[in-house]
Amino acid sequence: MNQRILLPILLLSAFFNDLKAQDPQFTKFYANPMYLNPAFAGTARCPRICMNYRNQWPNISGPTYVTYSAAFDMHVDALAGGFGGMVTTDDQGNGTLKTTNFSLIYAYQAVINREFSLKFCLQATYLQKTLDKTKLNFGDMINSRYNM
After folding, report:
1. Using an 8 Å Cβ cutoff, are 68 and 59 in contact?
2. Are 114 and 142 spatial neighbours (Cβ–Cβ below 8 Å)?
3. Which residues does 70 contact at the CB level (< 8 Å), separation at least 6?
């Protein structure tokens, strides 16, 4: 491998080795293809609307995890691909941590031959994350003498 390419890759991997994230997971993830992979925008060749809802552990008392997702996409021949939009809201702990994403998506389809094509995607996302600190309990807030 060329050393001019290898050095930047090694430097980037050294700086970004501790990145961690948790995305909401839907049971029927294939029912919202743009959430699965934004490059699927416009693959249906007709306008498509997808909506998902997830309520994890609804039968327990206390904080729950509720996630909503809605997406719209369509194919446009003049753009040589498809475009779409997606909104996802994830509510953890009855409003303790709330994440909202708004995405605009453009997917370009490069036709190689009659049987093979490649799809490339650009996705611009606005993310808003809110934390309600009044719903959090820390160890120094608990008084063992009064069970509070």
Report:
1. no
2. no
3. 49, 50, 51, 52, 86, 87, 88
Query: For residues 69 and 52, what is the distance between their CA atoms, to the nearest angstrom?
Result: 5
Q: What pLDDT digit, counting tens, does each position of 43-77 carry?
A: 888 999 999 998 888 787 777 889 999 999 999 99
Extract the tokens encoding 129.
């994350």
**CB-CB contact of 70 with 86 (8 Å):** yes
Separation between Cα atoms, residue 108 and residue 141, nearest integer Å: 54
DSSP 79-141: GTEEEEEEEEEEEETTTTEEEEEEEEEEEEEEEEETTEEEEEEEEEEEEEEEE-GGG---GGG
What are the structure tokens assigned to 73, written together? 């996409």
Express each pLDDT in 85-130 by its tens digit. Answer: 999 999 988 888 899 999 999 999 988 899 998 899 999 999 999 9
**How would you classify residue 14: left for phi > 0, otherwise alpha for psi between -120 and 50, otherwise beta?**
alpha
Is residue 65 within 8 Å of residue 91, measured between CB atoms? yes
